[in-house]
Amino acid sequence: MDDLAKSILIHIYKYGPDSPWYMARRLNGKSGYSPVYDEEAIEKVCKQLVDLGYLEVFRGQLKRSPTSSVKPWLKVKARMMDGKPKGVYYQLTKEGKKVASKLYKGT
Q: Using CA atoms, how far apart are residues 81 and 72, in angstroms rounded to an integer?
């Protein structure tokens, strides 16, 4: 598993479900509008992690505000279209939580 895949698992473990667009800008607590990582690379790695059984497409209700990885001074109401936010959000599976927990704790 490469460093980007590990970072994605740790990010979702720490901050909850997120989309590749947001992760490209705020992976592991970074902030700002300009992407720090390549969004397409993150999307590709997320799909690989889905194939490995560590991630799944988020199926729950999303709040009407950005996820908790946004710094408090950046929080704004999320723009909604037809009641659903744009993009695909990923969350950890049960197996993914085990792997991410070990990576997060450094064991």
A: 23
